[in-house]
Amino acid sequence: MIEALAERVNADADLVRRGRTLTTTFLLEVGETAFLISIFEGRIAAVTRGPFVMPSSEFALRAPAAEWEKFWSERPPPGSNDLMALIRRRVLRAEGNLQVFMAHLRYFKEALAKLRPARARP
Amino acid sequence: MTAQFEPIVGRYMRLDLFGRPHRIYVEEAGAGTPLLCLHTAGSDGRQYRGLMNDARVTSRHRVIAFDMPWHGKSSPPSGWHDEEYRLTSAQYVEIVLTVMAALGLDKPILIGCSIGGRIALHLALGHPERFRAIIGLQSGAHVDPYYDLNFLHRPDVHGGEVCGAIVSGLVGPDAPEASRWETIWHYMQGGPGVFKGDLYFYKIDGDIRGRVAEIDTRRCPLFLLSGEYDYSCTPEETLAVARSIRGCDVSIMKGLGHFPMSENPDAFLNYLLPVLEKIAGR
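ok -> structure tokens follow
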């Protein structure tokens, strides 16, 4: 399912345009499952599923699978509707060089929301 | 073609605050009981455009919103370029009371959202006799910082982009697209460091947990309205404040977020109008 990120983000020309100065690799952890997500100039270049021996990334976003499941639902409940809401409840841990994450916060929010059911996507 | 003007009129007011001259932008619409509106951190008085454009409110109320110093069309004071903006509780109280005195407002209804909802609690505690009633939107006694506020003001993160992105999820899911993005746009237009400076009050200096239970609603009625989807001031935090104050009237607004009057004015008015009715009937 996470692998669908590339196709969905890259199909959104406005999102890619807003990410045109963003080139990075970050680690996404959904419970025990890790993914390395590489972005080149706003396009998702690769989504690689772990496990990894020595994953190298700019920053990491880590949350329990049940929390991501709520975030990726069609109408997420209060407290699960936004990355900052998960951070506020201390269930999403953002770690590493967060300058990249914060400088492109709208991009990351909208890119990850692409994993919601079709009708609920930005 | 004839120009379609809204009923809102704006003017600039010269005002001394903290012993320094300020230029403050004030807008208003309607006639009747004064209803003084306080905007959220990092935004401005445009958040109340929905109230000012609704005849159900303006037929009986003089709705007034001013931009705080450093916000919207109000200037920072001369010398600002060498200072760090940091809002304190004492300054915020002085701003509200000085604006009221300058405009000659006699016992207005006060409505404030977020930081405005917090200072509403401070005013309900310290100056209840000055208000006909106080309405706190997204009012909590305290919010712990939940992200590094320094990201709001540093040269390698665009201030407008990050302020807009920080608050975007605080808009409730049912907000009409135009109102949602207008609300976010106001944040994107804030001056460098202003949102961060407001949050000094919201997250550090303005903590009123220890005293909120002393608010006496017999001296000034207190109404709290909070959006269901607000994760900055959560419904639980508003309900905790309400439970600690005898006689406090509280409602949780379904589907709404942190900016009810701006993100979804129509839905918000379904909750506000009955409150205004109650105040008028007292």
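Chain A touches chain B through 20 residues (CB under 8 Å).
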